[in-house]
Amino acid sequence: MPFDVIMPALGMAQETGILVRWLKEPGDAVTKGEPLIEVETDKAVQEIEAQASGFLSALSAQAGDEVPVGQVIGLIVESADAVTGGAAAARAAVAEAEAAVVERVAEPEAEPVTAAAAPAPAPHPVAEPIPVGRLFASPKLRRVAAEEGLDLFLLARAGYAQPWHMADLDALRALAAANAAAPDQIGTAKSQQSAPLGQTSALGHVAARVSGAPCAEFLDWMAVEGKIALPASALYASFAAAALRAAMPQDRIIVGLVSLTDEGLSALRLLADPDHARLSHQPGTDAAATLILRDLTDSPLTALRPLASDPVPVLTIARDGGDLRVSLDYPAGTLDDAAALSIISGLATRLAEPLAHLV
Amino acid sequence: MREITLSKAVNEAIAEEMRRDPTIFVIGEDVAEAGTPFKVLSGLVEEFGTDRVIDTPISEPGFMGLAVGAAMTGSRPIVDLMFGDFLFLVMDQLCNQAAKAHYMSGGKLSVPLVLRTNLGATRRSAAQHSQSLHALVAHIPGLKVAMPSSAYEAKGLMKTAIRDNNPVVIFEDKLMYQDKAEVPEEEYLIPFGVANIKREGTDITLIATSSMVQVAEKAAVILAAEGISAEVIDPRTIVPLDEATLIASVKKTARAIVIDEGHQSYGITGEIASRLNEKAFYHLDAPVIRMGAMDVPVPFSPALEDLTVPTPETVAAMARRLVAGEMIHAL
User: Fold this and answer.
1) CATH tag, B196-323
2) Cis bond before residue A108 (omega within 30° of 0)
């Protein structure tokens, strides 16, 4: 007899929960007690274990759905033959969920496109982001975590109550070890072998939005006071390289710059260490890019799906009303989540206050 | 080892130094035949005579100014200020003259003067005779400030103060005059700027001065019974302050409470907590907490007065919260 998988009540006054993702696909064998879903409440994200053994079937909720407590969202059936719901659909759901897990901005993601094309269609639902406001952790725990390369965010995902202290260090180490053993747990995909063009399942993604006014004012000021007609893309390239260098110190950073024009995407222009060069000088290079920067600010596009053939992190800067929207897509293995967050926040900080970059 | 009272320890220190150095004299109200209201100086006038143990009229600014001048011209006066509360009366002589003469004379003058006075509430002396005003003078560059926490410290710090060529203010806890502690027969001095680790511990550092050292030690006993290991440190002098010992301890325990009987706001608890914050921030697992006296004039009502100062129970309760990782004042 099939066993109902329901949205559990994790809090006294909880009415709904958000299904962050399924940890199993339809047809997968499930053992009672092993983690089956991740559920987010207003307090935490929590893994929920399977309450029965069998085969997962008939998923009726997808990653990102807000589901009333007690509602059936799937079944655990006794035999593999009884499974309903296609594997392809399931894979799509899982991929979407994985992309959603690392999406840390509260705005809906526009549908990506693979090249210059029509404006993006209406947004589709994605998982509610895991709240990353201020994390309350003691200075000492922050220092030790930084020294050991541990991401405090793992504690938030696992539902450890804040504030965190040194007493939580062992738990954090265990979570980091578990995460290293199964990197998909944090949202980077297991593998990217033979990923077809345009498929993003192997990508991590973070995004931010800042006012476009400070950069515009800075460029005006450069033009009027400094008599330097500085292309905005040069400024972005410099900021991007600086943010990357701050997050991951390295000797040489090559930024591959691509702009979207009426002609489509421009040819890749390689800039060596733009953050170390004068802003008005754009040194070319023939080495391989460390980071691709796509400047969409002269187009109406706000998002562009990265090509899976890009073996490096791809930063995209787009105009969104009066704001600049920046996002970072990074193939598994190129960056970890902490570095990605650092890069995107470093870039956002510089865009919001260009003069801060110069000091 | 013999045990003597804090009162006796101070008396011994002064007598020994007066025998050693004839330029030392004691001056103040009721210091001679009366031996001070707390009987700390009893017997000195009999041994050294009224030329070296000098009773004055009730005029703190007068005898303080006299002492500053005497110190500038070759004497080593010990000024007895009957209550710490009377510091307000001698502020110009102490802070504008004594503290600055050496600097403003380009080093030609020095003021080797000791101002001994007291602090501490819960003696039912009401608001004008119960204050702990050491922060007032610790704020003034040029003054050293010693805060003995037992008879042993009282004697060793007093002898060091008398031999120091700078003005030194010593605050004794008036509730502690009859408390006994082991004090060696042989001579010893306690150097300034060297903290005393009264009790070693690993979970939390209790930094306490003067009257609050006992409170911290009792709190540590309460905590030990609960499995919390508290380290108790007595800085002994707050100017100079043995910052290195405090920082090393906090780096070990990652938590600290600073306990002092001065009013909490703008007091030395804030100063010490701030230094720990600046210099040990990345070793802190919890905010450094100040525990001072309540920011009210000390009440005359005994029931209310007892509420205004930290107690072993309140210190232990705060330590418990820190060790438990409770979020304190965070939101």
Assistant:
1) 3.40.50.920
2) no
